[in-house]
Amino acid sequence: MALERSELADNALQCLHDEGYDAPYNTQSLNHQTMVFVQGRDAESLDGKWNFCVDLLDTGLRQKWFSMLPQAAEDRLEPYDYDPYLGEQVTIPSNWQMLKEKWYFFEGSAWYTRPLAVDKVSADERKFLRIGAAQYDCKVFLNGAFLGNHYGGSTPFFVELTDKLQEGENWLMLCVNNTRTTDRVPMRNTDWFNYGGVYREVALYTTPKTILRDLFVALVPDSAYNKISIEAQVDGPAVGDVSISIPDLGIQASITPDAEGLAKIIIDASPELWSPENPRLYDITATVGDDQVTDRVGFRQIEQTGADLFLNGKPLFLRGISVHEDDAETGKVTSEADIRRRFSHARELNCNFLRLAHYPHHELASQIADEMGFLLWEEIPVYWAIDFENPATLRDAENQLIELIKRDRNRASVVIWSVGNENPDSDPRLNFMRSLVETAKQFDPTRLTSAACLINHAKNKIEDRLSDYIDVIGINEYYGWYEENFEDLIEIGLNSSPEKPVVISETGADADISATGPKKGLFSEAYQTHVYERQIETLRTLDYVKGISPWILYDFRVERRQNVFQQGTNKKGLIAGDKQTKKEAFHKLAAFYASKRHEIEAD
Ligand code: GCB
């Protein structure tokens, strides 16, 4: 049979020698600028079955699998290495590691394909695809065309599909790559598992032509608690004023957008203030033309003065716990039930605070924290030895930070943006982190900034040049575990007199409580309890310590840890990986926090 070769077939041969195949798609064009405010919007879920194929050698990008059209196998005239319309399926959201043993250590590209039926394309509508999170690099294709690329494994991103969808059947394809590299954020070395895939919800939004792209509502942070600031970004042909309504405050306002579509107003109001004790939320509706969004917002002020923290003018001590987004069965895929269980364990610990380490967690976490009354530290994965001299790495980190802030800045629970964790000191690191702090302040002047900073071990003193730029000094210290001499912690306590509040953002010890775990010494439950007792005793004497978030609530998966008691799990949890079995140290910390709470209430 004589075949007439298509462009695709010619390319299949040429691409064997092309190592620049990724360049046209590495645009990072889906970023904070393409985000859309989604609270209160109806969505069509695109979760469920998608065709799936792992692609170790990036053959799909080289051969342009995305440009193949659906065809019956017997009608295809050229050989092909994958047919996106046939074969294996997986469910989104998921991490491929959790689906098949042979994918457990797979790092590379994987393809997801699904049909998208459109009844009618209307000239009055816009369509936006939202991907809740895809680890790490995601390239989006529709009906054979490349639509954009997103970097960053834990923040949502949007692709506008208006004018791109056709009536009837459409095909959506995602190429998701989780390769660890030195220039990504995080880089290739982390103490958590490198899951891959589309592991949060995917949804399609239909809107009018003119939309509210963004809405930022906050109490003006001037300690008077009687002004609310509202900023709405309108996008699309002018359709008049933005109207805002907060019925429980009797607010009904109309704002005229400026030439760029930005509508801003400061309104006099005296809301009941949000706090962990009284997590009061107000319904707010914003409307422009035919577009409407709603949100539930708490009003409160977080403040740092000298070495003190204040919430609504009252001194604050953060009784916290650190958490990863990790599950023995589902990996990074979480659910409302999983998040609620986490908060109810935090409540049993008498916490008022959680550190969501080391990357943006699912957006439901801050929504539930708002409702239940927990304070949150949210973080981007600027972790360990980031490529601080690389401007592209900074751009990526900055974008992840802005995406997180835009996603969560209406959440009263979030009080701290953390820009990094345990990064080695250098001038490039300082410049990089300083720039992130400035970005955080620019996009949200109402919250505090922090990072897990450094201790000067030669002087036994809390000392980090970054502390000049952040509001809260986070310190990870493992005296009794990695740092052998516990007396040094006492000395650091005496040597340091930081001018800003210190939060012990990590401390802890591993404990294997399985039947084969040790009964004494390192990795035993008894030793973990001992470390907690000594930490609590020492830290409670340091008056500049304004909060603690020990490491960590649950044991979590990580392949760096392979000793006989770890076997791929970091066992510093106060609760085992089953998310049920409490270790003895859980009760020690709960008792300490109960006494701290009583001290504060008695003041
Ligand atoms: C740290 C890291 C955290 C690790 C932890 C540990 O300092 O910030 O990501 O998991 O220590 O267990 O060693």
From TrEMBL:
PROSITE patterns reported for this sequence: GLYCOSYL_HYDROL_F2_2
InterPro entries reported in the protein's UniProt record: Beta-gal/glucu_dom_sf, Galactose-bd-like_sf, GH, Glyco_hydro_2, Glyco_hydro_2_AS, Glyco_hydro_2_cat, Glyco_hydro_2_N, Ig-like_fold
GO MF term list: beta-glucuronidase activity; carbohydrate binding
Domain of life: Bacteria
Start and end residues of each Glycoside hydrolase family 2 catalytic domain: 306-586
Domain Glycosyl hydrolases family 2 sugar binding span(s) in chain numbering: 44-208
GO biological process, one term: carbohydrate metabolic process
Keyword vocabulary terms for this entry: Glycosidase, Hydrolase
Stated family: Belongs to the glycosyl hydrolase 2 family.
Name of the protein in question: Beta-glucuronidase
